[in-house]
Amino acid sequence: MLNIRIEKTKNPKPLPAADDPLKFGTIFTDHMFIMNYETGKGWFDPRVVPYQKIELDPSAMVFHYGQEMFEGLKAYRSEDGKVLLFRPDKNIERANNTNRRICIPEIPEDIFLEAIKTVVKVDEAWVPSKPDTSLYIRPFIIATDPYLGVRPADTYLFMIILSPVGPYYPEGLNPVKIWIEDEYVRAVKGGIGEAKTGGNYVASLASQVKAHEEGYSQVLWLDGIERKYIEEVGAMNIFFKINGTVITPKLNGSILPGVTRDSCIQLCKKWGLTVEEKKISVDEVFKAAEDGTLEEVWGTGTAAVVSPVSHLRWENKVSKIKDGGIGELSKKLYENITGIQLGKIQGPDGWIEVVK
Amino acid sequence: MLNIRIEKTKNPKPLPAADDPLKFGTIFTDHMFIMNYETGKGWFDPRVVPYQKIELDPSAMVFHYGQEMFEGLKAYRSEDGKVLLFRPDKNIERANNTNRRICIPEIPEDIFLEAIKTVVKVDEAWVPSKPDTSLYIRPFIIATDPYLGVRPADTYLFMIILSPVGPYYPEGLNPVKIWIEDEYVRAVKGGIGEAKTGGNYVASLASQVKAHEEGYSQVLWLDGIERKYIEEVGAMNIFFKINGTVITPKLNGSILPGVTRDSCIQLCKKWGLTVEEKKISVDEVFKAAEDGTLEEVWGTGTAAVVSPVSHLRWENKVSKIKDGGIGELSKKLYENITGIQLGKIQGPDGWIEVVK
Ligand SMILES: Cc1ncc(COP(=O)(O)O)c(C=O)c1O
Ligand SMILES: Cc1ncc(COP(=O)(O)O)c(C=O)c1O
Fold first, then answer.
1. Closest ligand 1 atom to the C-alpha of A302?
2. Cβ of B96 below 6 Å from ligand 2
3. Contact A123, A29 (CB under 8 A)
4. N or C: where does chain B have the smaller number of CB atoms within 10 Å of the terminal CB?
């Protein structure tokens, strides 16, 4: 059992007002979790402390060589006032996969979970209760050696910060327009695409800026080798319903294995749908759009849960899906997953972890 | 003209002892340069201040989304006591290329150069004078918005830190053993390989660890698409001399355009050698090794200038070059470039910038 030291803030911030839109990623709670690592000593001194700035040497390795990882999950307030986590074991497992890929020491799974639960419990009052709100949980690790040179670090900080968030799209379930990128590449087989590390996100910025300028809110990436197979959206996995079959790109080493992706696959199968995880080309999707068999397209991710896609733009073609509306299956998935997250619907065994 | 505020330290550190080996990247000088950026305001408040830790919010974007860039160059002490920079304009140009690729606001070239010269002048006493020593200069930029979400930041810090360094290899010009990577990929066309940003280095760690375990000091990367064309070493570009011709991989978008690489090409051409920048496959290199036409292999980079390569390992083949010794041309390049850097040899116009 972990001995987490707790130091409460002496200057609690006011909680956000009931009508605060809780803009994603901008408000932070009163406390944070922090734990150190040193080679030879392992992870040590787990503690919950007042939310505060961190001090690092300007030569700290994270600023230069990108050895950093993060995760993202949420705590939900159920109608009867409980605080629930959705499949935290999946995030913890993925965190350690990321750690292994980028040579960060792993964190024992039980310690990781206890750290999350402890800091969420301390800031429990910050878990909002309005519809479509939640407490976003951001665990992350950074390399801190004051050293200029490329090698795995010997010292790290593991932190968990918390941010109350409103609906990702203020209007709720909202179709998004997607730009299929044909110039830049996000990740390639053999690279770090399946790890949740900064290098994949910085690689996506230029494309995102271009897409926004053209009126598209998200970028869909193609594979880096043939530039024709669909991979994933900037911060979502992607699904297609073609002729009754649900299709999503197979995990191939360059795609992030999304927790929401896995949850969608499991629910669709439970509902008797055929789900195929396979290589799917952008050509196939555009052909299905033309011949009328492309029934739905949606993205999946922790932030927005399910995002119906209304438009796909590729080179000079734009395909409008479902007349720009919300598909039936997208809606059903959204309602079921959010229902499970809020404890209103009974999900598969082990999907909900009660914090309080 | 830039108005750089200078605040000198009240607690200068002792200079390293004359016999200190100055281990690369571990000792930092008394001062650092720092300048802020805010959208709408541009770069502002350039200043030289005592070397000190920086304070950042744990949500600072650099910790999560990898928006960070760096450069590396050196100041040299000439025999007559001057302080010289080697081709800083090339580093500054490359810095802004990196900035554009990863959506960091550019820094005007004259301001960048003045910042380097000013901080080096303040810490001039730290420029060492023993053979094979220099002052390593590390400019870098990090995204600092306290915000969780993937987009280019609105606030940045640009800093320059300085580190006196000894010879990269304590024994001087020293042949290295190189591991040609066949599992992992560093970068791919369309990605961020030609930018000097953390994401490329974190991607290289796992491979470096594996190579070290096998007794190889550096990793040579192949292209991410066909996995057969040679790209570059972890922190060096690579050259081959085959049958009298000097060959180095063409800049293709996934390779860092090294300043030392460019300098080697220019000098070799000046000396009447044929230099080809082209796609070269690992097969070609191993065939040349077998038929005896592979005369020399060397890496080029700011840290070690020229590193002769003694062994290349690819899959299960190991090729020993020049009986493991140092090639003539590698030696001539090393002596000429270091000679120019120290002001002993007259280099091409514009290669040397006098700080003091
Ligand atoms: C690149 C990328 N793909 C997919 C996802 C979706 O993963 P999850 O459903 O676990 O949030 C995310 C967000 O976490 C992501 O950053
Ligand atoms: C990936 C990579 N390639 C090549 C180089 C060599 O570049 P330069 O000669 O400018 O130091 C470096 C080091 O700076 C590097 O990091």
1. 11
2. no
3. yes
4. N
Query: Would you list the DSSP string of A228-297?
Result: -BEEEETTBEEEEEETTEEEEPPP-SSS---HHHHHHHHHHHHTT--EEE---BHHHHHHHHHTT-EEEE
Please report the ipTM that was assigned to this predicted complex: 0.97
Interface of B with A in 38-67 (CB under 8 A): 51-59, 62-67
Give tens-digit pLDDT for B90-135: 999 999 999 999 999 999 999 999 999 999 999 999 999 999 999 9
Whether residue B1 has pLDDT greater than 60? no
Q: What is the pLDDT of residues A229-274, one digit of tens each?
A: 999 999 999 999 999 999 999 999 999 999 999 999 999 999 999 9
Q: Which among B54, B224, B234 has the least Cβ separation from residue A150?
A: B234
Burial bucket for residue A284 (CB in 10 Å: 0-12, 13-18, 19+)? middle
Percent of chain A scoring above 90 in pLDDT: 95
Amino acid at position A57, single letter = D
Q: How many CA atoms lie within 13 A of A124 on its CB side?
A: 12
Binding site membership of A256 for ligand 1 (Cβ less than 6 Å):
yes
Comparing alpha-carbon positions, the chain B residue that sits nearest to A204 is: B102
Q: How far, in Å, CA of B176 to CA of B169, rounded?
A: 10
pLDDT tens for each residue of B38-49: 999 999 999 999
Do B343 and B84 form a contact (C-beta atoms < 8 A)?
yes
Query: How confident is the model over B265-285, as a mean pLDDT?
Result: 98
Place of tokens 């001057």: B82
The C-alpha atoms of residue A323 and residue A300 are separated, in whole angstroms, by 20
Does residue A308 contact residue A42 with C-beta atoms inside 8 Å? no
Three-state secondary structure call for residue B231? strand
**Could you say which of B185, B203, B208 has the minimum Cβ distance to residue A199?**
B203
Helix (H) or strand (E) holding A165: strand A155-165
Give, in order, the Cα–Cα distances in Å from A313 to each of A217, A220, A254, A286, B29. 11, 9, 22, 10, 52
Tens digits of residue pLDDT in B193-228: 999 999 999 999 999 999 999 999 999 999 999 999
- Cross-chain residue pair B53–A56, CB shorter than 8 Å: yes
Q: A191 and B186: CB-CB below 8 Å?
A: yes
Lowest mean pLDDT among A74-88, A165-179, B68-82: A165-179
Do A25 and A165 touch, CB atoms closer than 8 A?
Answer: yes
The full set of domains in chain A, from first to last, is: 5-166 (3.30.470.10), 176-341 (3.20.10.10)
Query: pLDDT at residue A1 above 60?
Result: no
Please tell me whether residue A142 adopts helix, strand or coil conformation: strand
Cα angle A69, A73, A77 (rounded to 5 degrees) comes to: 155
CB distance B300 to B267 below 8 Å: no
Q: Give the CA distances from residue A281 to residues A197, A208, A312, B118, B235, in Å, rounded to whole numbers and listed in that order.
A: 26, 21, 13, 54, 36
The gap between the terminal CA atoms of chain B, to the nearest Å, is 18
| Length reported for chain B | 356
* CB-based contact B322:B313 (threshold 8 Å): no
B106 and A CB contact within 8 Å:
no
The beta strands (E) that lie in chain B are given as: 5-6, 31-38, 42-50, 54-56, 68-70, 73-77, 83-86, 134-143, 155-165, 176-180, 218-222, 230-233, 237-242, 245-248, 275-277, 294-301, 305-314, 317-320, 352-354
